[in-house]
Automatic annotation (TrEMBL):
Segments forming a coiled coil: none
Classification via InterPro entries: Amidohydro-rel, Metal-dep_hydrolase_composite, Metal_Hydrolase, Metallo-dep_Hydrolase
Organism this protein belongs to: Leptobacterium flavescens
Protein name (database record): Amidohydrolase family protein
The Amidohydrolase-related domain, residue ranges: 77-407
Keyword Glycoprotein attributed: no
One example GO MF annotation: hydrolase activity, acting on carbon-nitrogen (but not peptide) bonds
Top-level taxon of origin: Bacteria
Key words, A-Z: Hydrolase
Length: 409
């Protein structure tokens, strides 16, 4: 090959390389970056390459920014993408077609708390391969529950009784590459510790509802990694026969500061987290046609919110979860409603944001990749028009979303 032809080939390959680099490089210029650890806001630019945050600093000092796609973010605010830590994306047959809509409201990662394991595994794989758009998925697959009266069988649930081979069940779920195991209220309480031990042997952990006849402290101390729903705590108190708590009123009377301190010590000491799901509890009761149930729901919310604040002040890791199903535009933003409820409960705007960003990344042990706007982390980001530290509702004032380094809009 002549030197001229060789130079031509080298030049062509160089141009391809440059064009490819430009295509995969994005710069968010002069954004107000919110530090979710401490609430500090700094005006800086962010360089993103191949879906990863590579540089943060003054635009004029960023060498790699000179030949990149640049988005002017002056006056805008930058947050890490949100986690919804309690949702069910495949509970409705049409849910999958709305997954990209979750991205549009800043939900870039989800913890699916029960569904068809095979379908969830397939959807997660297709998202990871770029075949379909959707948030990063961490999932349980089939929920484990006990025998109870059902109008129709639940195809997303595996029924467990005293004779069920739990090793076989866990191995089956492991084949779907689940991230954890979810139990529901009727899971046999006398087998909870056994399940947790078997799951641990397969590098899995157990989360979910507190099984009936199990005190909340007991469930945490046996090794449940997260407890879901405020009402699950009430149910645990009422159904544990030795507690002598017979109804909701007695349960709320039992949950005084001494009890909440004890519960907090269990959560913190055993490394368990709590997902209150205030929004869905309010939604269920406030929309009920029965006036008495609506009144009961209001009374429950009045008691639940101080519980959340007390646990939070005692350093319990709080996770934001909507427990909603993405089937239409009325509930895409359910997670944002949960953040608003957490602020109503007494968390600051920053603390509420933490429940959907850095707290989930800590819980899932992926803090090195997710949860904040930092170098080496995944570029799943929310660009806001207004400051959410001033008003939590500003988390919905979205200018654009970055998903795996690409602008959504």
């Amino acid at each position: 090959m002549s030197n001229t032809k060789l130079l031509t080939v080298i030049s062509f390959l160089f141009l391809i390389s440059c064009n490819s680099h430009d295509k995969n490089t994005l710069v968010l210029k002069d954004a107000n970056i919110i530090n979710v650890y401490n609430g500090e806001v700094s005006a800086n630019s962010v360089v993103i390459e191949d879906g990863i945050i590579k540089e943060i600093g003054a635009f004029k000092n960023l060498n790699s920014a000179k030949s990149s796609q640049v988005i002017d973010c002056s006056g805008k605010y930058l947050l890490p993408g949100f986690f919804d830590m309690h949702t069910h994306i495949l509970e409705h047959k049409n849910s999958t077609k709305f997954l990209d809509s979750l991205l549009s409201v800043g939900i870039t990662s989800i913890r699916d708390m029960g569904g068809h394991a095979d379908s969830l595994a397939r959807v997660k794989s297709e998202i990871n391969k770029g075949i379909i758009n959707g948030p990063d998925i961490f999932f349980a697959g089939y929920t484990l529950d006990g025998d109870k009266q059902r109008d129709t069988p639940d195809p997303t649930t595996l029924i467990i009784n005293d004779s069920t081979d739990l090793s076989e069940v866990v191995s089956k779920l492991k084949q779907y590459k689940v991230d954890f195991i979810k139990v529901h209220s009727y899971f046999p309480y006398n087998r909870l510790e056994e399940l947790i031990g078997i799951a641990s042997q397969q590098d899995l952990y157990v989360v979910g509802h507190i099984p009936r006849n199990t005190d909340p402290n007991e469930a945490i101390q046996k090794g449940m990694r997260s407890i879901e729903h405020l009402n699950s705590i009430i149910e645990g108190l009422v159904t544990k026969e030795s507690n002598g708590v017979e109804n909701i009123t007695q349960a709320f009377n039992t949950i005084d500061s001494t009890y909440l301190d004890s519960l907090s010590r269990s959560f913190v000491g055993y490394g368990s987290a709590f997902t209150p799901t205030l929004h869905i509890i309010d939604k269920i009761y406030s929309s009920n046609p029965d006036e008495n149930l609506r009144r009961l729901g209001g009374l429950m919310m009045d008691r639940f919110m101080p519980m959340v604040l007390a646990l939070h002040k005692n350093n319990v890791l709080i996770l934001a979860g909507s427990d909603d199903v993405p089937v239409d535009n009325s509930n895409y933003a359910a997670l944002h409603k949960e953040l608003e409820w957490l602020v109503k409960a007494g968390l600051t705007n920053l603390e509420s944001i933490q429940t959907a960003t850095i707290n989930p990344s800590k819980f899932l042990d992926i803090e090195s990749e997710y949860g904040s706007v930092d170098i080496h982390k995944k570029a799943n980001l929310i660009i806001l028009n207004s400051n959410p530290l001033d008003k939590i509702e500003n988390t919905t004032d979205i200018s654009n979303i970055v998903v795996k380094g690409q602008l959504l809009k």
